[in-house]
Amino acid sequence: xxxxxxxxxxxxxxxxxxxxxxxxxxxxxxxxxxxxxxxxxxxxxxxxxxxxxxxxxxxxxxxxxxxxxxxxxxxxxxxxxxxxxxxxxxxxxxxxxxxxxxxxxxxxxxxxxxxxxxxxxxxxxxxxxxxxxxxxxxxxxxxxxxxxxxxxxxxxxxxxxxxxxxxxxxxxxxxxxxxxxxxxxxxxxxxxxxxxxxxxxxxxxxxxxxxxxxxxxxxxxxxxxxxxxxxxxxxxxxxxxxxxxxxxxxxxxxxxxxxxxxxxxxxxxxxxxxxxxxxxxxxxxxxxxxxxxxxxxxxxxxxxxxxxxxxxxxxxxxxxxxxxxxxxxxxxxxxxxxxxxxx
Length: 343
Ligand SMILES: Nc1nc2c(ncn2[C@@H]2O[C@H](COP(=O)(O)OP(=O)(O)OP(=O)(O)O)[C@@H](O)[C@H]2O)c(=O)[nH]1
Ligand SMILES: [Mg+2]
Fold this sequence. Notes:
Rossmann fold; 8-stranded mixed beta sheet; binds magnesium ion
């Protein structure tokens, strides 16, 4: 009651956190978003973060992401080729999530939007820096405080990473981020590298370490730039959106191919083809911890902010961030900065 009254006296604008996806065509950008959405609600309930805040997806976001997730499950049930599950995007699309202190609140305190688009738009910029679709990708990254980079893991891991540059275009990803976020930039930022399709590699602690180290080496150019930004945290958080579809081999290259195609296998028996995604909620969890910390810290600025923090108006979000952070699993690629947005 008193909290509601104080909110009216000391109102705050909604904090908008924009997250841009990066990754070539069919890398798994939309799959990461779909699996993250599907998994997260359960995590929230289990950890009782829902006592501290309410997270909801836009109706459109919920519809599209649930449909994608159903497609993924149907493809697994059907067996055979997973490559047809989740149709590649032909247009840009934004997925929105709202965070409120209470389900009954009218006001949205934090709005998270994830900007997805056809991965071909990113690759087009590698061929022609003036490509109009690539200009849109650059604008998405410029506008975003957070980046999610989908890494097609078999190309990173197989044959010593021989196809990683051609497939995941890490040099072009680095050039894009350098162009959008100059080294002088002091905005608090978060970058999450998400190796996916990694069922074969992320099975044991040693396998997990090898995957994380290959990601670190495979994105060395990008990491060098991010390391120079004063307030940027970088984390590697592998995700398995299916959990039962495993890379088997690359098909021999045909004339005209620039990279080989992967062949994935899944268990023959229907009973063994269980959909068991792993660590998919981690991306949203990291984004939420970042967003909540930003909200709480920004609220401390100025006179109204000082009063707000003295009255501890944001304590539910502080507590929510603490609970979520305790469940974060990922490897930070930099030592914590002086003012890490994740602390
Ligand atoms: N083996 C395996 N395949 C996956 C996994 N996640 C997604 N896929 C497959 O990867 C393919 C590409 O996924 P998308 O999410 O559509 O990729 P995208 O980056 O959004 O592609 P564009 O929209 O074309 O840019 C789909 O056919 C999925 O079925 C996974 O964890 N393991
Ligand atoms: Mg997509």
